[in-house]
Amino acid sequence: LGLALYASSLCAASGAAFLYHDYCVIGAGPSGLQAAYFLQQAGRDYVVFERSHAPGSFFALYPRHRKLISINKRYTGKSNSEFNLRHDWNSLLSHDRRLLFRRYSHDFFPDADAMVRYLEDFASLLKLRVQYNTAIIHVTLERDGQAWNGHYFLLTDQDRQNYKCSSLLVATGTWVPNVVNFPGSEYVEGYETVSINPEDFAGQTVLILGRGNSAFETAENILGVTNFIHMVSRSRVRLSWATHYVGDLRAINNGLLDTYQLKSLDGLLEGNLEDLAIVKDKKGKLHITLRFYLENRNTSAGIDSVTLPQDELDNFATRAPYDRVIRCLGWKFDFSIYNRSLRMMPGKGNKKKYPQIKPSYESRSTRGLFVLGTASHSVDFRKSAGGFIHGFRYTTRAVHRLLENRHHGVPWPSTVYPITQLTNSIIKRVNEASGLYQMFSILADIILLRENATAFEYLEEYPVGVLAELETQTGRKAPNGLFVVIMEYGRNFSGADKDVFYYNRAVGEAQHAWQSNFLHPVIYYYKRLPTEREMRLRPPDWPLPRPDAVHHIVEDFLTDWTAPNAHILPLRRFLENCLSTDLRNFFAESCFLFAFTRQKLPPFCRQGYVRMQGLVGSEGLRRHAVEAGLLEDYAPTDFPGDRPPDSREGSQDQLLRDHAIPVHPLQHLVNAKDE
């Protein structure tokens, strides 16, 4: 009967009218709103479907105890808005300065209600096209050779209204609770429903299943009123300061580690949850046993007939009965609404809670279906910040740029500079860019070299996992080699078992930069674009294949890579070696002398001095150059910039005799060179 009703509903749906949009976004959480912003700014036809009456419905419920673990650093000592986003983990990207999260909360760890208000304002102030109270319950494909991707996406909501889209952006996050089924699991309370009133736990003994932030958040709330709390999970606790992964246990929630290690009754245990069983006695107490003890048990027998581990091992760790058992195992992606034609498959191993996607965030099985936000975290799970707002705001922008190139012929944004600005461009980005900083090892700046290395094209925050596809994904060409600028931690510095506070943990000398442990810039040089095969065969834990040359900028305690000798000089020499050119800057006087003494001028002189560009000469500048050893100490003379406004300008011959630093090159010299 159920199959017949479902088939009839599909037939009815097939005959109903479809509302068409180029882009459909499912979910009005942070990633859905971020995608909507970029689509609206580009003038695209889109709609966002949200099942609730307001955006960000997840944050209306979670975290249960209302304190976010995403930092809200309001002061950095700098006014650079791009730099400040490195330490603002809650704001979405927009042009509206009112929509910075620091205007919504002064707390370092904000209340979740502030996030709800922020997302509501983000949607309303930017007039994003969100269709509320619309739950998409079924998604399937319709083959059509005229469609962008060879098919359309057909969506059906709870009212049987149908929609047709050329491209589907899934931004639903992971909201289905992870549940482990074992004998007695019906006695377990879920994180999503358990009481958050500490008084309800007064004088009780509690067992918590799980060891993530939700588990420790729950324990932190009741730590002061319980007899004791035990926490069990299949893996050891992972501390975020050791793994450098913000999804692992944060210090704000780790009070139970203190009470455990300082012997205040609470404790942590490791074990496979699927091997457990819970038995309830006549007094309502919950006893922990093992599944295999119950395999041959008469289910109608009482608690007295059940073999408990302490019957064989009288000091069994969890022999004391519990009053409550709470499940805090996180969430997983909802696959139930997707028809088999989309082939939305879960990942493998510890990524099975996420759908399988490519490094471009597109489904591995269905072209035109992109996964955004927390659900896309399989690309950088336990590596970077792609599962959190301060990470996926940048990956969402990257997906938008990929779509703009694919469907609308808009190439990836880039800027062309003369080669003399190469060092400055890199230094500026590694000191300011928030996308590189937050999505380390995942997003990178790409520098495409022009012919003869006279200029370069700069692309910001491109997903390195699809570097081999750069030309087709961005609409930019890379025939003359490229640099890749990325941020990385040291290879052996992060891990659950790592001591990140050991003595001499930091490197300070430029010659040892490759041994840097903390986050630092790394520049890869390739004479040609890597192939897909090279990407597949890259060394384990390397974000990129082996380059023709690589340079590490030494880590810096202040994350300020502007030191002339430690940071800039080694970088410039690396770039010069790769390009076989001179990237130094010169005073006009030096360029003038080079014109007489060299067959080939350095790029700075060719692109500046010869084109009547360069530093304005003055007595103060000349004295500074002399004191720095950059110029010979000529006798003081009058300079054009120091003369009174009514004085006559000296002739070019006079300037030459005075050894002045000219504003423009000698025109007769340029003419002579042309002849």
From TrEMBL:
List the residue ranges of the region (Disordered). 634-657
Which terms in the Gene Ontology molecular function aspect does this entry carry?
A: flavin adenine dinucleotide binding; monooxygenase activity
Tell me where on the tree of life, at the top rank, the source sits.
Answer: Eukaryota
What's the cofactor? Answer: FAD
Write out the GO biological process terms. ERAD pathway
InterPro entries noted in UniProt: Auxin_biosynth/cation_transpt, FAD/NAD-bd_sf
Leader sequence range is none
Residue ranges with Basic and acidic residues bias: 640-657
Keywords in alphabetical order: Endoplasmic reticulum, FAD, Flavoprotein, Glycoprotein, Oxidoreductase, Signal
Q: Name one GO cellular component term.
A: endoplasmic reticulum lumen
Annotated function: Probable flavoprotein which may function in endoplasmic reticulum associated degradation (ERAD). May bind non-native proteins in the endoplasmic reticulum and target them to the ubiquitination machinery for subsequent degradation.
Q: Which PANTHER family match?
A: FAD-DEPENDENT OXIDOREDUCTASE DOMAIN-CONTAINING PROTEIN 2 (PTHR43539:SF23), FLAVIN-BINDING MONOOXYGENASE-LIKE PROTEIN (AFU_ORTHOLOGUE AFUA_4G09220) (PTHR43539)
- Quaternary structure and partners: Interacts with SEL1L. May interact with OS9 and DNAJC10. Interacts with TXNDC16.
Q: Which family does it belong to?
A: Belongs to the FOXRED2 family.
- Name the chain's protein: FAD-dependent oxidoreductase domain-containing protein 2
Q: Which organism is it from?
A: Aptenodytes patagonicus
